[in-house]
Amino acid sequence: MKQKYVMAAIDAALKAGEKILSIYEDPKSDFEIERKADNSPLTIADRKAHEAIVAILNETPFPVLSEEGKHMDYAVRRGDTLWIVDPLDGTKEFIKRNGEFTVNIALVQNAVPVMGVIYVPVKKELYFAVEGTGAYKCSGIVGLEDEGVTLQQMIEKSERMPLADARDHFIAVASRSHLTPETETYIADLKKKHGNVELISSGSSIKICLVAEGKADVYPRFAPTMEWDTAAGHAIARAAGMEVYQAGKEEPLRYNKEDLLNPWFIVEAKRER
């Protein structure tokens, strides 16, 4: 069952990435930028990616909670399993044309993200993970070769995460668009503890992937995010031996809450109990 659904999510993410790139790479495109109620931007690429994803995921038995879709009432979605989707995470980065945007798809069971897919269209990099199977990175992919591609075949042409890394200093990753005073204070404390701390700035869920890959040690987020911003990355981090903790607590983020706003969090290696 898991293989069937993760392959559907991979297919959906790749097809959404294709839609996004067709707009992103069109020199005549103006992105048709609108403003949502919270003043965040919405483009035609967000809408086209959403349509591509739900066309596939609606064939599964689980409801789809998408940032760009009609948000179901909690009474409707409070069941044990659902998809949580951000069709275009990093819309601000998309508009800036810096390539740091992703497609995020997660399957959540009993408030825990058990499956995650993140696609970086510009880099043609695919991250995917299944609880109990592991987390993987596949490079140079733009679509599935045929409908019969299996999860095992995807794994065979991918690298298991975390990847080997011979660096000798501590690396923290931070948001390119949301570096808050609280984050700066946290990073200052890291420097007191670790000495040489390199700071990497990035957009979208790529930040979580950098920790899952082993390219960074920690990602603190002391600014607002929604469940669709983190669910896919959280699934990938968990499968790679990392965790997404609520800031100041030993508890991980939980999903499919009545209020979809996340608390502040820290992505890092699992803490010893």
Notes on the protein architecture:
This protein has 273 residues and is of the alpha+beta class. The chain has 8 helices and 14 strands. It has helices spanning 2-24, 44-57, 74-77, 91-96, 151-156, 181-194, 206-213, 227-239; strands at residues 34-35, 41-42, 64-66, 81-89, 102-109, 112-120, 125-130, 134-139, 159-161, 170-175, 197-202, 218-221, 242-246, 265-269. The strands form 4 sheets. A 7-stranded mixed beta sheet has the order 3-4-5-6-7-8-9, sandwiched between helices. A 3-stranded antiparallel beta sheet has the order 12-14-13, covered by helices on one side. Strand 7 and strand 8 (134-139) form a beta hairpin. Helix 1 runs antiparallel to helix 2 (44-57) and helix 7 packs parallel to helix 8. The longest helix has 23 residues, at 2-24. It is globular. The mean pLDDT is 92.
Summarize the entry for a quick read.
With 273 residues, the protein is α+β, with helices and mostly antiparallel strands. The chain is 32% helix and 27% strand.
